[in-house]
Amino acid sequence: MSKKLFETISLHSNENPFGPSPMVLEAIKKYSQDVHCYGSWKPKTLKEKLASKYQVSPNNIAVSAGSYELINLIIHFLVNRDEEILTFDNTFMAYRYSAKRNGRKCVVSNMSGLECDLENLIPLCGENTKAIFIANPNNPTGTIVTHDSLRNLLETIPSNILVVVDEAYYEYVTDESYPDSIQLLKEFPNLIILRTFSKIYGLAGARVGYGIASEKLVEILENKRLLRSINILGKKAAEAALDDVDYVRRSISHNLKERKYLLKELRRLGFTVGDSHANFLYLPFQNNDQKNNVYQILAKEGLMVCDMEIFGQNNSLRITISLNEINQRIIDCISQST
Ligand SMILES: Cc1ncc(COP(=O)(O)O)c(C=O)c1O
Questions:
Q1: 8 A C-beta contact, residue 240 and residue 93
Q2: In what order do the strands lie in the sheet with 280-284?
Q3: Which residue(s) pair with 306 in the sheet?
């Protein structure tokens, strides 16, 4: 294997550039001595910690092996074969993939530029619509839908349609118009909130996600989940991650500062980059040749960004915001190419 392969830097999956928190590493080390044992059937302590953080009952929390597992459970068990899901065309591909793998139809609404306009979903809700998936912030464009627009959607559509808000990046959002989805859940039991330990908590490889929803929906999802799908190290790592408040705070302020730096520099270089509320930037190009050129230049330096072709989108890249030194390398490389 060439030396280069060892030097690549992942800027394609929106992981936390700080690496795991020291408290998480300590917990993993401590509990690694117990890996010969099964964990408890239900992640009781983790559920209790999450419930107390969000001021809900542990019965409103479904823990899963990453949010992917919950997305799949929702589509497999809450959407019947003859029913459909509805989402946007330039959003997280897992909704569409999961629908396809489960033989469910996925209807897509066009984006309004980089925005997910919830008003556009309303006329697409038909008799067979069972679940709407909204990534907020949206991956890959980094835009958000507001509290008022989410409330309006929930008030307008029939209450038998589930609204799944995937808030994988919610900890990074500082905009005041962002939804207080837990508040909305009290009024709208058809709302399901998805969150994860994979992003700001730096635990993508540990595979722990969770949903916050009505007790009824949580019970269904928990009963359908594979028995023991959450491993003890992931569980203990997630508990420790919740305790490391300082790591989360540092991650938020680092991201804000570096996002501002990258945006300013990319705009100075002539790119039209939209504001992002998450830990990544969406970079549109005039054509695929320009995009491929920048992708190749970065890849040669081991800076592996995400080509949006995997989302079915031409002419764009998504770049995870990283450490300052790496972000400067990105700008240096791109400036040399323009
Ligand atoms: C919007 C969104 N939801 C969910 C996930 C996956 O999260 P998890 O690692 O918890 O399965 C991602 C990962 O990139 C994401 O961007």
A1: no
A2: 9-11, 303-307, 316-320, 280-284
A3: 318
Q: Are 317 and 290 spatial neighbours (Cβ–Cβ below 8 Å)?
A: no
Ligand 1 atom closest to 135 (CA): 1
pLDDT tens-digit readout, 38-94: 988 889 999 999 999 999 999 999 999 999 999 999 999 999 999 999 999 999 999
CA distance 12 to 92: 13
Ramachandran angles phi, psi of 120, nearest 5°: -70, -20
Tokens of 142: 């980094």
What 331-337 contacts at long range (C-beta under 8 Å, 24+ apart), as own/partner pairs, is 331/262, 331/265, 331/266, 331/269, 333/297, 333/298, 333/301, 333/303, 334/266, 334/269, 334/294, 334/297, 334/298, 335/269, 336/297, 337/293, 337/294, 337/297
DSSP 8-state assignment for residue 128: T
Separation of 208 CA from ligand 1 center, angstroms?
10
Strand partners of residue 134 = 165
Between CA 293 and CA 287 the distance in angstroms is: 10
Amino acid present at 275: D
| ω into 284 cis (within 30 of 0) | no
Q: Tell me which DSSP letter residue 238 carries.
A: H
Boundaries of every domain in the chain: 3-18+246-337, 22-243
Per-residue pLDDT tens for 99-122? 999 999 999 999 999 999 999 999
**Ligand 1 atom nearest to 68, measured from its CA:** 11
Find the residues whose C-beta lies inside 6 A of ligand 1: 13-14, 66-68, 92, 135, 139, 166, 168, 196, 198, 204, 209
List helix spans (H) across the chain. 3-6, 22-32, 44-54, 66-73, 94-101, 147-156, 181-187, 215-224, 232-243, 245-268, 288-300, 324-337
What residues does 195 pair with on adjacent strands? Answer: 210
Span 22-243: which CATH code?
3.40.640.10
Model pTM? 0.96
The tokens 């680092």 sit on which residue?
Answer: 254
CATH fold of 3-18+246-337: Aspartate Aminotransferase, domain 1 (3.90.1150)
